[in-house]
Amino acid sequence: MIHVTKRKKMRNYMLEISRSLFKAIDLLDKLFQQTFVIITVMREVRQLLLDQIGQTEGEALLSMDEMASKLRVSRRTIDIWTKGGKLDEYRVGNKPYYRFSECVRG
Question: The whole model's pTM is what?
Fold first, then answer.
């Protein structure tokens, strides 16, 4: 009789743990979905900011990779020119952007 009671208690305990795990998994799933939505919105806002800055000046901004590709130089060269004051950098968040016309002018 004692073994049967211990087994029932153990079974109930295991069922309780599995229910808690399923609840935790469900909460994590909801969190990931919300995180995805937030990241998507942040990307859209960043693009709107880039578009707005580009429209204000009449020219689109280029990422460091795009600028380096157009000028056929390395990212390091773009970085050196920026730090040397030869190229202006526009930051959106923590990412640098550049205007092609400023490089051609200078």
Answer: 0.48
